[in-house]
């Protein structure tokens, strides 16, 4: 369990990125921070592995204030995946994935074995292991980034807009893959995005943020859609424009679900 207790962050130049943020992120679930640019998503995410320390308040992992933990050890115990994969260009895929394992003192042989294993977990076969990042597609690079985040088998995986820079089809594929991974691996995932559809697809708990890390609403996607807290949330999730309104049309004795644009999206189960 991750807990933010009255956390605030003011940067050296006076920017108040987060004002007063409190929330519990339950273990083995995915919490998604969603909001427009500059609302403090990345700042909140990076507080979990102490890439950023709060100016006020505390972040706790399993009831331990992480300010008391060694920064380097903490960071290596938590998976981190970012938007542009962050892979080292002059290192092979295998070396990139195994980098944290080597830093943790694992032998090269064992690190290579584990890296191969985790590459397979994210859907990359062994032929990619000896390649360099530039020889991979954007989607494959992101998979390597996810593999690296998972290599040390962390309990917590932080993901900062990991699928933001790939085309929509690949993005869709990576999102489905992450859902499968989460089902199999059962991690505590903290995911940042500005895309509300992505948030609703991936999040068990979705946190809609306003500027300064103010929580507009937090809840399961279905609860937010059923009871948006205010007009800001309605508008942010697209309820005000009817974009999420589905209706049913009867055709040949079956109930077809049709979206706001008139496109058939499915059949109601009986
Ligand atoms: N190192 C820094 N120094 C000063 N201000 C910063 C620093 N890092 C972030 N900020 C500011 O803090 C605020 C929150 O930034 P943050 O990156 O957390 O937002 P975000 O919601 O992740 O935005 P985006 O979606 O654009 O990545 C912004 O106003 C940003 O400009």
Describe this entry's structure for a reader.
With about 270 residues, this protein is of the alpha/beta class. The protein has helices at about 40-50, 70-75, 95-105, 110-120, 140-150, 170-185, 195-200, 220-225, 230-235, and strands at about 1-10, 15-25, 30-35, 55-60, 65, 80, 155-160, 190-195, 205-210, 215-220, 245-250, 255-260, 265. The protein folds into 2 domains: about 1-245, Rossmann fold, CATH 3.40.50; about 245-270, no CATH class. Helix 3 (about 95-105) crosses helix 4 (about 110-120). The protein contains 9 helices and 13 strands. The model has no long low-confidence stretch (mean pLDDT about 95). A 6-stranded mixed beta sheet has the order 6-7-8-3-9-10, with helices on both faces. Strands 2-1-4-5 form a 4-stranded antiparallel beta sheet, covered by helices on one side. It binds adenosine-5'-triphosphate (ATP).
- Overall morphology: globular
Share in helix: 25-40%
CATH names the topology of the largest domain as Rossmann fold
Mean model confidence by pLDDT: 93
Keywords: ATP-binding, Nucleotide-binding, Transport
Protein name: ABC-type quaternary amine transporter
Pfam family, one: ABC_tran
GO molecular function, one term: ABC-type quaternary ammonium compound transporting activity
Q: Which SSEs are present, and which pair or pack?
A:
Blueprint: E1 2-10, E2 16-25, E3 30-35, H1 41-48, E4 56-61, E5 64-65, H2 71-76, E6 78-82, H3 93-103, H4 108-121, H5 138-150, E7 156-160, H6 168-185, E8 188-193, H7 196-202, E9 205-210, E10 214-219, H8 221-226, H9 231-236, E11 247-251, E12 254-258, E13 264-267
Parallel strand pairs: 3-8, 3-9, 6-7, 7-8
Antiparallel strand pairs: 1-2, 1-4, 4-5, 9-10, 11-12, 12-13
Helix pairs in contact: 3-4, 3-5, 4-5
The structure holds adenosine-5'-triphosphate.
């Amino acid at each position: 369990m991750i807990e933010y207790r009255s956390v605030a962050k003011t940067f050296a130049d006076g920017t108040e990125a987060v004002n007063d943020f409190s929330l519990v992120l339950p273990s083995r679930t995915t919490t998604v921070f969603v909001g427009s640019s500059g609302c403090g998503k990345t700042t909140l995410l990076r507080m979990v592995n102490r890439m950023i320390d709060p100016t006020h308040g505390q972040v706790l992992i399993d009831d331990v204030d992480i300010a008391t933990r060694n920064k380097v050890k903490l960071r290596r115990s938590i998976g981190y995946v970012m938007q542009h994969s962050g892979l080292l260009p002059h290192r092979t895929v295998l070396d990139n994935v195994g980098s944290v394992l080597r830093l943790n003192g694992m032998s090269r042989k064992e690190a290579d074995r584990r890296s191969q294993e985790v590459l397979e977990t994210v859907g990359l076969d062994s032929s990619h292991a000896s390649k360099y990042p530039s020889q991979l597609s954007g989607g494959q690079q992101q998979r390597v980034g996810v593999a690296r985040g998972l290599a040390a088998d962390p309990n917590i995986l932080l993901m900062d807009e990991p699928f933001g820079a790939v085309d929509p089809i690949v993005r869709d594929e990576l999102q489905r893959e992450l859902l499968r991974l989460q089902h199999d691996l059962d991690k505590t995932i903290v995911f940042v995005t500005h895309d509300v559809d992505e948030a609703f697809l991936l999040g068990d708990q979705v946190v809609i943020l306003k500027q300064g890390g103010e929580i507009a609403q937090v809840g399961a996607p279905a609860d937010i859609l059923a009871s948006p807290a205010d007009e800001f949330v309605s508008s942010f999730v697209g309820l005000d424009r009817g974009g999420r309104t589905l209706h049913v049309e009867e055709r040949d004795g079956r109930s077809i679900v049709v979206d706001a644009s008139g496109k058939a999206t499915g059949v109601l189960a009986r």
